[in-house]
Amino acid sequence: MMESSVSVCPVPSEQQPINEYQELKNSWFFRWATLDEGSYWRKMAWIWGWSWLLAGPVAAASFPPQKAVGQFMLCGGAIASLFMILALLRLYLGWCYVRDRLSNPTVFYEESGWYDGQCWDKPPEILTRDRLIVTYQVQPILQRLNKTFALLALIFGLGSLIWVFL
């Protein structure tokens, strides 16, 4: 009976791209990008809303709400959106890392520390499996995050346009 190439993989379990993908997919924060549309947007709104705890006082110091409501709202919304952008950036970078590890035909890994890195060439069946995961699981997540970035850019542009007329 022939051993499968998965069992002779020298890469430690926690550094195998498929396990890194599973860990990311199941983690508390990175799982947000895999949620259904409604839940995903609720999480984004949750970040934006809580960001107002810091954004509100900063905006109020610059634009007193009783005198400049429009500027206060736009400034506070922009500052709160910056926190959302940071969260989205972290999501995006995490998923890009896993995408790159899955797509790459060679896996770089460390046996016992940073000083003894090795490379392992994935067998064709593992490379095919990993690339299918990228195509059907990871790419849609990255596309969703890209659309969210584009929406935020559009909102910033509209906010800037409104600012000019205030």
Estimate the helix proportion, in percent: 55-70%
Q: Termini separation (Å)?
A: 76 Å
Shape: elongated
Largest sheet: 2 strands, antiparallel
Please provide the count of β strands. 2
Structural class: mainly alpha
Count of structural domains: 1
- Total helices: the number is 4
Mean pLDDT: 92
Strand percent estimate: 5-15%
**Strand line-up in the sheet with most strands:** 1-2
Rg of Cα set: 22 Å
Unreliable runs, pLDDT <50, ≥5 residues? 1-6
Query: Helix and strand string, N-terminal first?
Result: HHHEEH
InterPro entries: CGLD27-like
Organism: Floridaenema fluviatile BLCC-F154
Transmembrane segments: 45-63, 69-93, 148-165
Keywords: Membrane, Transmembrane, Transmembrane helix
Quick take:
Keywords: Membrane, Transmembrane, Transmembrane helix. The chain is mainly alpha-helical and 166 residues long.
Keywords:
disordered N terminus, CGLD27 family protein, 68% helix, two-stranded antiparallel sheet, 2 strands, 166 residues, mainly alpha
Write a structural description.
With 166 residues, the chain is mainly α. It has one domain. Helices cover 68% and strands 6% of the residues. The protein has helices spanning 17-26, 37-62, 69-103, 124-165; strands at 106-110, 117-121. The protein has a two-stranded antiparallel sheet. α2 crosses α3 (69-103). The longest helix has 42 residues, at 124-165. The chain is elongated. It starts with 16 loop residues before the first helix and ends with a helix. Mean pLDDT is 92; it is low at 1-6.
